[in-house]
Amino acid sequence: MRVRVGVLTVSDRASQGVYEDRSGPAVAAFVRERWPEAEVVPRLVPDEVEAIREAVLELLGMGCRLVLTTGGTGPAPRDVTPEALLPLLEKPLPGFGEAMRLASLRETPLAILSRQVAGVRGEALIVSLPGSPKAIRTCLEAVSEAIPVALRLLEPGSSCEKDP
Q1: Cα(11)–Cα(131) distance, rounded to whole angstroms?
Q2: Which domains does the chain have, with CATH numbers?
Q3: 164 Cβ neighbours under 8 A, 6+ residues apart
Q4: Could you read off the pLDDT of 109-124 as tens digits, one per residue?
Q5: pTM for the complete prediction?
Q6: pLDDT value for 156
Q7: Rounded to whole angstroms, how far apart are CA atoms 116 and 98?
Q8: What is the pLDDT of residue 164?
Q9: How far apart are the C-alpha atoms of 93 and 153, rounded to whole Å?
């Protein structure tokens, strides 16, 4: 899959240099492993709605057709990634969040606390992931087959109809 992929880490502490970002590199590593032709564009922002929205729009403006965010999907007061992303989505794709939570529930009952969202903006797919490197892999494995299909369907002139 030849595509530009924005990887956006959402973390107050990592953005302040309190600790090293491990989740963004985990997303990037999965992308490079699964889709070696993909170009990864990393970004790091604090848990702030406007910062998240601005970074996503910047990545889309740079031609990213896939934006993967990591972090900010829990129930804590500073976890605002879904609130930042939902207004940007022209077509929500709730199956992504459902599939990721289902896969995560096989590993931990705490997966019910996760609020991942996904959807379409223009010709791009936006998917939010948890902030834990282990959970990132679990979630991306759950949706990785659907991502290239979604991107093909988002290309201009594409159709869900099968050829006769």
Answers
A1: 8
A2: 4-153 (3.40.980.10)
A3: none
A4: 999 999 999 999 999 9
A5: 0.95
A6: 86
A7: 8
A8: 41
A9: 13
